[in-house]
Design a protein that fits this description.
mainly alpha, Hyaluronidase domain-like, two-stranded antiparallel ribbon, 5 helices, 2 strands, globular
């Protein structure tokens, strides 16, 4: 089930270095709906954040990264929301690298994600299984709310 059915998925998956061009129109629509400030207290109303999850679920890894970057830029410095968004962005990056056959690069990103997961857990006072709808204990970092 889509989280943001009102914004269409891109017409095709973009994979850098293949000569494909990204379908930017739906990404831009989602980015324009991002709140000025990203906060955990209102994540369910953050259309750009939720649309990033739709993109990930459908295998649009480059696109998810692009949308989540806008959401990440609206987080405060050193806050838990920023850590989670970095994890999600790095996870999208890792999945894209796997799709491109760059397994060593994906493995390095997985190490960074594990470090960010540990930092997030510490920041939130211990083990956190679900944060902003994301099962942080799941290696795939899937939306699970």
């Amino acid at each position: 089930m889509r989280l943001v059915p009102d914004i269409a998925l891109p017409t095709h998956v973009h994979i850098p270095t293949t000569g494909s061009r990204p379908d930017l129109a739906p990404l831009e629509m989602a980015r324009q709906l991002a709140p000025r400030v990203t906060q955990a207290t209102n994540w369910k109303q953050n259309i750009a954040y939720l649309y990033g999850h739709d993109l990930m679920r459908a295998g649009y890894y480059w696109e998810a990264h692009e949308v989540w970057e806008t959401v990440w830029l609206a987080t405060g410095a050193n806050c838990p929301e920023r850590l989670l968004l970095r994890m999600l962005i790095q996870n999208a990056n890792a999945q894209l690298k796997r799709k491109m056959g760059r397994l060593a690069a994906a493995d390095k990103l997985d190490v960074q994600i594990a470090e960010l997961r540990s930092d997030l857990s510490s920041r939130l006072g211990g083990k956190v299984d679900l944060y902003m709808g994301v099962a942080t204990n799941n290696l795939k970092l899937q939306y699970n709310a």
